[in-house]
Amino acid sequence: MGRTRVENGQSTPAASSWSAVGTVTAYAAAIVALAYALMSLYWALGGHALVSTIGGYVEQFARRGGALPVLIALAATLAKLAGGLLALALVRPWGQMVPRVWLLAGSAGASALLVVYGGLTVLLGELVLLGVIHPSGSVDRTALRWHVGVWDLWFLVWGILLALATVGYWRRTATRARRDGTANRAHS
């Protein structure tokens, strides 16, 4: 690999490996988000495959049809699409149009929300399936298995990928931000 240069106590290969991890995980987070958006769009357009795996009121609501379930599914589609674009903004040139602090805050906040939501719902669902937690009402165990193993896990994986992409972006852009900040102070 050649020489290693040390800047501010960090070697260039370490920074470039974080850059590679950040780039790969940003694209992976975008793929996960966009695939989830396609699922929501499918349901918004009237598809019913896998609706039974959601269970509860959402399943009943979707099967009943009407404008409101379509609008909710379209809103979910747009939110997931925005999440995919957020991940891509961390690695694509057009993402530089967004101020660094906004991109970091948005992606860190979104990844935290996804990890907390996905992690808690997977954990609690698994505890119900294992019999550790006993809900007062009836439980659709098939739908709960789907939530633990697919739907809520999907949020958790997406959040972890976005968090890694955010760290990669932060590490990759930190030197430039410090340099630009120093240069701006020198000219003031």
Annotate the secondary structure layout.
Blueprint: E1 6-7, E2 10-11, H1 12-44, H2 56-64, H3 67-89, H4 100-129, H5 141-186
Antiparallel strand pairs: 1-2
Helix pairs in contact: 1-3, 1-5, 3-4, 4-5
The count of helical stretches stands at: 5
Radius of gyration computed on alpha carbons: 21 Å
Fraction in beta strands: under 5%
Helical proportion? over 70%
Tell me the number of strands.
2
What does this structure look like?
It contains five helices and two strands. It has 188 residues and is an all-alpha fold. It has one domain (18-85, 98-180). It has a two-stranded antiparallel sheet. The relative contact order is 0.16.
In short:
With about 190 residues, the protein is mostly helical. The chain has helices spanning about 10-45, 55-65, 65-90, 100-130, 140-185; strands at about 5, 10. The protein is built from 5 helices and 2 strands, in the order ββααααα.
Keywords, separated by commas or semicolons:
single chain, 188 residues, mainly alpha, 5 helices, 75% helix, disordered N terminus, disordered C terminus
